[in-house]
Amino acid sequence: MAQLYFEYGAMGSGKSIEILKVAHNYESQGKRVLLLTPLIDDRFGQGMVASRIGLKRPAQAISEQTDLYAMIENGQGEKPAAVLIDEAQFLTPTQVDQLALVVDDLAIPVMAFGLKQDAFNTLFAGSKRLLEVADKLEEMKTICSFCGKKATTQLRFADGQPQYTGAQVQIGGDEAYLPTCRYHWHHPILTMIPQ
Ligand SMILES: [Zn+2]
Q1: What is the whole-number distance in angstroms between the Cα of residue 144 and the centre of ligand 1?
Q2: Where does 39-147 show beta strands of DSSP type E?
Q3: How many angstroms is it from 116 CA to the middle of ligand 1?
Q4: Which residues of 32-58 are buried (b: 16+ CB within 10 A; e: fewer)?
Q5: What separation in angstroms does the CA of 162 have from each of 33, 133, 147, 191?
Q6: Does residue 76 sit in helix, strand or coil?
Q7: For residues 134 and 103, is the Cβ–Cβ distance under 8 A?
Q8: Residues contacting residue 29 through CB under 8 Å, at least 6 positions apart
Q9: What is the pLDDT of residues 19-60, one digit of tens each?
């Protein structure tokens, strides 16, 4: 039975490297995967799955208007063995429901990788829907930048200062993020923030 997976974690938990690993594993068995990424920032003109340790590969970019079920059902060539989605927090709830239909009606496994919540500890819309409908949930873990406990969120910084207000998604700004535990989200150690 195909299933809908949601692998979630804070920034820096290795989601992109995991998606590249899963794609490689399928392809080393001669199976084709469909690699998708929501394009919220189209300055670069194409989709890319890029990990922090330097590995990257192109991915098919999708917009909020893309009907994922229609796209996969009507795709060229043979059906993919699996659909892998990076930055799945940026999917719309409707697109998550379309992915559930891909699993149930087309019998293609779908693995979505993304952040659970934003820098203000609020669920992303795509992640909320994935938590509601996915068959399998898996937390990918990383450690707090300040204490080494498990990171459950990420703190946004700009000019060395923590940011507790602002847009959920900022494009092209100078902000940076650090994975943190809940305590250090409230109480970051300012001298440890990279300038
Ligand atoms: Zn901490």
Answers
A1: 5
A2: 47-50, 56-62, 82-85, 110-114, 136-139
A3: 18
A4: ebbbbbbbeeeeeeebbbebeeeeeee
A5: 39, 33, 17, 12
A6: coil
A7: no
A8: none
A9: 999 999 999 999 999 999 998 765 555 788 888 788 889 999
Give the pair of three-digit tokens for residue 21. Answer: 């690993």
Q: What is the DSSP letter of 123?
A: B
Q: Which pair of tokens denotes residue 88?
A: 């799945």
Q: Which residues contact 100 (CB under 8 A, 6 or more apart)?
A: 4, 133
Which residues form the catalytic set?
A: 87
In contact, 92 and 125? CB cutoff 8 Å:
yes
**What is the CA(115)–ligand 1 centre distance, in A?**
18
CB 156 within 8 A of CB 119: yes
Instruction: Report CA(145)–ligand 1 centroid distance (Å).
Output: 7
Residue 60: count of CB within 10 angstroms of its CB: 15
The one-letter amino acid code at 92 reads T
Q: How far is the CA of 51 from the centre of ligand 1 (A)?
A: 23
- Provide the token pair at 152: 């459950």
- Give 154-187 pLDDT, tens digit per residue: 999 988 899 999 989 876 666 789 999 999 999 9
